[in-house]
Amino acid sequence: MSPAAKAGAALPGLIDRRTPRWRAWLLLLPMVTWLVLFVVAPTAILLVYSFCERDEVGRVLFTFTLDNYRRVFDPVYLWIFARSIYYAGLTTVICIVAGYPVAYCIGRAREEWRQRLLLLVMVPFWTSFLIRTYAWITILKQEGLLNGFLRLFSPGTAGLDLLYTPTAVVIGLVYAYLPFMILPIYGSVEKLDGALIEAAYDLGAGPLRVFSSVIIPLTLPGVAAGTLLVFVPAVGMFAITDLMGGARVPLIGNVIQNQFMQARDWPFGAALGAVFMGLFAATYWVMLRLGAQEEDSVA
Fold first, then answer.
1. Which strand (E) or helix (H) includes residue 15?
2. Of 132, 99, 64, 41, the residue nearest 225 (C-alpha)
3. How far apart, in whole angstroms, are the C-alpha atoms of residue 105 and residue 114?
4. Comparing C-alpha atoms, which of 272, 261, 267 is closest to residue 239?
5. Domain ranges in the chain?
6. Do the Cβ atoms of 236 and 173 come closer than 8 Å?
7. pTM value?
8. Is residue 129 within a helix (H) or strand (E), and if so which, with residue range?
């Protein structure tokens, strides 16, 4: 058989082997297109703008400069970054402490009750985020529901002045992001093998030892995922700090918003956003490292 005939005979098999791969790429095409248009392209534009300048009327001048990044490391903005990380970290810790017992109870509940309990966790998402935030303003204000209950049970009390304080900001952040901590932990708890817990009890371990040595390590991936889902958006949140903090507790999200909307300094706002993305990447890398170390220790 000639070489041409051999190639023609092998061609159908080659096409059959390659067709599924092309079909897979066609199935991925919508997602890849979406990522390119709404993730890669905006990120590239942000990075380009971060090295530009602006003129007197706020127009972007495409001239290369590092001044925007030098301004980012000004002590004023570094302090705002530190404050944002502190509030986000505090929110994450509170969400873990409050969300872990809820997620564990849901994950270990009977099958017919799990979906109902999960539905209660998801109910707040049925309402607009702004409506829920204004509801908390109504609860926390001086003439609000909370102080009304306090005056009802303790007449003559002055009430709590919580609104437009850092405490109100933390309350709003915890309320907004608590479901994002509960759901990943629930996923880990649901997969938890009950036989391992029973084996630990049979070997003489007490409840605290079982919880710390068996349950926590096995559900740590859910905690790590919830930490990432809560910490990163909490750092950049600006709506809650504006509405419940009265703009008295500016975080990095407020500064970025002001640079784009009020100050019309898009290059500097883009530089702040780029540094914020770097903070997200560092957080993600740390979580991956911690997860890998935990898997090695368990193995």
1. helix 3-35
2. 99
3. 9
4. 261
5. 1-50, 72-298
6. no
7. 0.81
8. helix 129-140
Tokens of 291: 């997860």
3-class secondary structure, 57: coil
| pLDDT number for residue 3 | 47
Number of Cβ within 10 Å of residue 99's Cβ equals 27
Per-residue tokens: 19: 């067709």
Which of these ranges, 37-51, 67-81, 93-107, 146-160, has the smallest mean pLDDT?
Answer: 146-160
Contact by Cβ (8 Å): 66, 51: yes
SS3 277: helix
What is the per-residue pLDDT for 226?
Answer: 92
Class of domain 72-298: mainly alpha
Q: State the Cα–Cα distance between residues 38 and 54, nearest whole angstrom.
A: 25
For residue 143, what are its two tokens?
């003439």
243 in Cβ contact with 163 (< 8 Å): no
Pair 240, 170: CB distance under 8 Å: no
Q: How far apart are CA 183 and CA 189, in angstroms?
A: 10
- Cα 194 to Cα 206: distance, rounded to the nearest angstrom: 15
Q: Which of 174, 178, 168 is nearest to 243 (CA)?
A: 168
10 Å CB burial of residue 266 (0-12, 13-18, 19+) is buried
**Per-residue tokens: 104:** 């564990």
Q: Which of 58-72, 82-96, 150-164 reaches the highest mean pLDDT?
A: 82-96
Which residues partner with 94 through β-bridges?
A: none
The tokens describing 196, both together, are: 């391992």
Residue pLDDT, tens place only, 29-64 = 888 899 999 989 999 999 999 999 988 877 888 888
